[in-house]
Amino acid sequence: MTARRKHSAVEGSTAARRERRAFTEEFKREAVRLLHERRAAGVSVTQIGRELDVRPDQLREWARRLAEREGGLAAAGVVETPEQELKRLRRENVRLKEEQAFLKKVAVYFTKESR
């Protein structure tokens, strides 16, 4: 019987050896623009990330930061269709209702505790 050598996950991984890459602001903006265009066409973030050789979570982070910094999608050069806007607003509405319900529960909890 021959002895087998155990391989660690890091040892066989190319990601472990990959150097940290720096992306220009121009590349990030273009990637975010492409992300919004391709997402509107139904392409997954994972697929877009593969095409650009960037992790999907990194693309999402760039999009979030750009939207925060420049005041939303319109400033990033992306125009929402009415259907997209409605979908986004409905998601936001659900999130806000959940936050409101949570805050009501917290308020009740602290008023009971302070008596």
CATH class of the largest domain: Mainly Alpha
- What general outline do the C-alpha atoms trace? elongated
**CATH topology-level fold name of the largest domain:** Arc Repressor Mutant, subunit A
Number of H/I helices: 4
Low-confidence stretches: 4-8
Output the structural class: mainly alpha
Number of separate strands? 0
What kind of sheet is the major sheet? none
Q: How many distinct domains? A: 2
Sheet-strand content, in percent, reads: under 5%
How much helical structure, as a percent, in the residues?
55-70%
Describe the structure.
The chain contains four helices and no strands. The longest helix has 32 residues, at 82-113. The chain is an all-alpha fold and 115 residues long. It has helices at 25-40, 45-52, 56-70, 82-113. It has two domains: 19-79, Arc Repressor Mutant, subunit A; 81-115. Helix content is 62%, strand content 0%.
